[in-house]
Amino acid sequence: MVCVSIQTTRYSRGRRVHTLVSCPFCGHDFQPNEPRWKHLLDEHDPEDAGLTPAGEIAPGHDAPLFGGVQR
Ligand SMILES: [Zn+2]
Questions:
Q1: Does the pLDDT of residue 31 top 70, yes or no?
Q2: Is residue 41 part of a domain?
Q3: By residue range, what is the domain housing residue 22?
Q4: pLDDT tens-digit map of 35-44
């Protein structure tokens, strides 16, 4: 199943507007003027996006991204 969360509308002069039409985490369909940020803050936690819980620091968070680089 393919879930489309973003709708792109093209206007004159190539201007494009991207609109979140459904929640990528739970599939909630947004009403046209519904504030997306409110749903995301009220209904979801960072874990829904694969992040560590709020206020928790992941072990190894300060490790270098690239190791073993020779100069
Ligand atoms: Zn949601």
A1: yes
A2: yes
A3: 6-49
A4: 999 999 999 9
Distance of CA 23 from the midpoint of ligand 1 (Å): 5
Per-residue pLDDT reduced to its tens digit, 52-63: 998 999 888 898
CA of residue 70 to ligand 1 center, whole Å: 45
3-state secondary structure 2-69: CCCCEEEEECHHHCEEEEECECCCCCCECCCCCCHHHHHHHHCCHHHHCCCCCCCCCCCCCCCCCCCC
Per the structure, the count of domains in the chain is: 1
Residue where the block lists tokens 């992941």: 58
Instruction: Scan for tokens 């990528």, then name that residue.
Output: 24
For residue 26, being part of any structural domain is answered with yes
In the reported structure, the alpha carbon of residue 30 is separated from the centroid of ligand 1 by a whole-number distance in angstroms of 9
